[in-house]
Amino acid sequence: MQSSPISRVGLFLGPVLFFAVLWFWFPAGMVQEARIMLAVTAWVATWWITEAIPIAATALLPLVLLPLLGALPIGQAASNYAHPMVLLYMGGFMIAAAIEKWNLHRRIALTIIHWIGSHVRMIILGFMVATAFLSMWISNTATTLMMLPIAMAVVKQMDVDPLDQSLRPQAIGKALMLGIAYSASIGGVATLIGTPTNIILAGVIKEIYGVEISFAQWMLFGLPISVLLLGICWWYLVRFAYHLPKGLQIAGGQTEIEKQLHDLGPIGKAEIRVLVVFLLVSFFWITRDLIWNRLIPQLDDTIIAVCGVLLLFVLPSSHNQTKLLDWKTAESIPWGILILFGGGLALAEGFKTTGLADWIGGQFVFLDYLPYWLFLLFVIFSVNFLTEITSNVATASMLLPILSAVAISMNIHPYGLMVGATMAASCAFMLPVATPPNAVVFGSGYLTIPDMVRAGLWMNLISILLVAFFTYFLLPLLWNIDLSFNPF
User: Fold this and answer.
1) What contacts 24+ positions apart, CB below 8 Å, involve 310-316?
2) Between the CA of residue 9 and those of 23, 60, 399, 454, what are the distances in Å?
3) Helices (H), ranges, 136-214
4) What are phi and psi of 323, to 5 degrees?
5) Which of 254, 30, 19, 17 is nearest to 158 (CA)?
6) Does position 259 have pLDDT exceeding 90, yes or no?
7) Percentages helix, strand, coil for the chain, rounded to the nearest 5?
8) Can you tell me the distance from the alpha carbon of 436 to that of 140, in angstroms, rounded to the nearest whole number?
9) Residue by residue, what is the 3-state secondary structure of 293-324?
């Protein structure tokens, strides 16, 4: 891929900032190790923002620079790349790979769409519910790529009532494509493994505070936001953005869904066995805190995920002894994302160990005079629009340790700012470059950038208000914390 002017500038700007901080900037109260950490962060952040090289490759910089400069020993820096949260996401990726290998995700999606109905509004809702559900467990990008050809086949069956002159022929296609992209992002916030930013948050909190955010604990907060935002998004698209009349039908739309289901054939043994493993893993994740930790205190979400993966490698798909998951399929998972997690966690540990987090927190004493709710809203707003043009994973990796330090300065519970920022990073709806699902549906040919900006701007604003409301009012109740002071 040809580099852009911004990435070429960033390629040189990163090392320049690194040496400028290291050689010429000596702020009062900052020890040598913290200054090294700040210099490394400046280099990494610059390359992440400008994508001077692949962001996963940039994530290897802390592994080289922190030990060489004496900020962290090599063992301490390297351990973050095999952090339990990294392995949890690896397990989730491999289970998703098995689901995709046997086409179970396609059967689930088509079945949900078939159940919900044939009216235009209900077909769009069916696609959105199916996409959101799958995105809770497998890659948002893979889900969108799988749903797109199904949606395009359905739209081709479109036979709109000619008496309804107010309905533009492209409106259904636009609403459906945006619905798929938006629901892929919205579904991802519901579970801990639904999107990389959630895992980064859990890893940073574990690294800095030694506290585990369990799968069930995250779902208790993330699922209600996801369901409510999905409903609002559907209603906004069909009622306000594209004014799709109630009762309008796509001739042959339901027939196309039935045809695609028929083409899949009856569900096979391999699909059933993968589904059973997936349901077992999900059940143990959700009930671990309630049941299993009383019997097996050492059990955690990572162990559950790896046990599920091992089962997939052991169980045969049918009588021919082909396994449900083979290594060729498993090695196709996005390993670069796992390296990116490791780099982000190495930065978080460096912030804590070198004292940089304490120094940054001390620079924000002026925030004591700012109302907490207003600062929370500002953080959510800023992260939401920042991730329209930057990687949400890289943004979360950069900002979460800083927000933790700011919370210390404000003497408030860090979860509020950190959770709010994490949720906001998954709610960029305006531009094709904001998220892979947006880029995938933009490539369908139904949408222009003005289409995406017009619809996405309102979705951004709605999501900002909803995330701020849930974080400020409901997070303390659901997680039994007090946001008004810092217990750490």
Assistant:
1) 311/277, 311/280, 312/94, 312/95, 312/98, 312/274, 312/277, 315/273, 315/277
2) 21, 20, 22, 31
3) 140-155, 171-188, 196-209
4) -75, 155
5) 254
6) no
7) 75, 0, 25
8) 8
9) HHHCCCCCHHHHHHHHHHHHHHCECCCCCCEC
Give dist(CA 72, CA 82) in Å, integer: 16
Determine the Cα–Cα distance for residues 231 and 462; give it in Å rounded to an integer.
12
- Whole-number Å distance between alpha carbons of 88 and 94: 10
Residue 458, both tokens: 């309102």
Write phi, then psi, for 31 (nearest 5 degrees). Answer: -75, 165
Query: Concatenated DSSP letters for 198-242?
Result: HHHHHHHHHHHH-----HHHHHHHHHHHHHHHHHHHHHIIIIIIS
**Tokens 């940089």 sit on residue:** 356
Q: Is the pLDDT of residue 368 over 70?
A: no
Highest mean pLDDT among 3-12, 57-66, 402-411, 437-446: 57-66
Contact 351, 401 (CB under 8 A): yes
* pLDDT band, very low/low/confident/very high, at 167 (cuts 50, 70, 90): low
C-alpha distances in Å from residue 329, one per residue of 105, 302, 372: 16, 20, 47
3-class DSSP string for 269-291:
HHHHHHHHHHHHHHHHHHHHHHH
Asked whether the CA dihedral 40, 42, 43, 46 is positive or negative, the reply is positive
Which DSSP letter does residue 471 get?
I
Q: Is the pLDDT of residue 249 over 70?
A: no
Q: Residue 222 is encoded by which pair of tokens? A: 């993330």
pLDDT digits (tens, 9 = 90+) for 12-61: 999 999 999 999 988 888 899 999 999 999 999 899 888 899 888 999 99
CA distance 279 to 262: 24
Measured distance CA(266)–CA(262) in Å, rounded: 8
293: tokens are 């930790």
pTM metric for this prediction:
0.82
Q: Is the Cβ–Cβ distance between 274 and 104 less than 8 Å?
A: yes
Which of 167-206 are b and which e, b meaning 16 or more Cβ less than 10 Å from the residue's Cβ?
Answer: beebbbbbbbbbbbbbbbbbbbbbbbbbbbbbbbbbbbbb
Distance CA(425)–CA(437), nearest Å, equals 14
pLDDT digits (tens, 9 = 90+) for 129-154: 999 999 999 888 888 888 888 888 77
The CA distance from 119 to 254, in Å, is: 9
Separation CA 203–CA 84 (nearest Å): 8
Query: Which residue is associated with the tokens 């940054």?
Result: 360
Residue 411 has pLDDT above 70, yes or no: yes
